[in-house]
Design a protein that fits this description.
The protein has 182 residues and is α+β, with helices and mostly antiparallel strands. Helix content is 35%, strand content 25%. The chain contains five helices and seven strands, in the order αββαβββαββαα. The strands form two sheets. Strands 3-4-5-7-6 form a five-stranded antiparallel beta sheet. It has a two-stranded antiparallel sheet with strand order 1-2. The radius of gyration is 19 Å and the shape is globular. The termini are far apart.
């Protein structure tokens, strides 16, 4: 059984994230660039349903973290999207809205860029950030109170000054949600 577990974890670590950049390389870079007291992330597990990102949970000691990888395959370059994420986190913090914080690297950055040149003209890029795990529970058969709490949280996010949900881009009717909830 232990051999099966190790084989499964190795298969996950050999997953290609961006071109030929593997999750194993990402984990090694995270271990080198974040202050985990000399420990390396382990028990890496993929999560599904990422929009423009691949997500993984991992353990360092007895703490669980979330790894998010942004690659060149999405609509915007990874560094652009991560800078926007940093700005959003600053706005959430100012508004007093709880969220899973991004952990700074040893050098004080919010993410690490990883590049791998495979030919003189081909370079793969990905950017990785690590955040605390936002503890929750699976939402099955939500109560009215659950839905009200979720809507209240979403409303608080979209009431942040300068968050700028444009009416033409409001496919989820968030502006109507905020107006209705108020």
């Amino acid at each position: 059984m232990a051999e099966e577990f190790i084989a499964r974890e190795n298969a996950v670590l050999d997953t290609e994230i961006s071109g030929r950049i593997t999750l194993r390389q990402v984990v090694d870079e995270v271990a080198e660039n974040y202050d985990f007291g000399g420990q390396k992330p382990e028990h890496v597990h993929p999560l599904s349903r990422g929009l423009e990102t691949r997500k993984f949970t991992c353990w360092v000691g007895n703490k669980c973290y979330l790894l998010k990888t942004y690659d060149d395959s999405a609509s915007r370059p990874p560094r652009f999207r991560l800078r926007n994420l940093s700005a959003l986190e600053g706005n959430l913090e100012k508004a007093g809205i709880p969220f899973a914080r991004t952990i700074d690297t040893k050098d004080g950055y919010s993410f690490i860029p990883i590049e791998k040149r495979v030919t003189p003209s081909t370079i793969y890029h990905t950017a990785v950030f690590v955040s605390e795990v936002f503890v929750g529970r699976p939402l099955q058969n939500p109560t009215i109170e659950d839905v009200e709490a979720i809507v209240g949280y979403m409303t608080r996010i979209h009431q942040i000054k300068d968050y700028a949900v444009l009416p033409a881009m409001d496919s989820w009717s968030l502006l109507r949600l905020v107006k209705t909830y108020d």
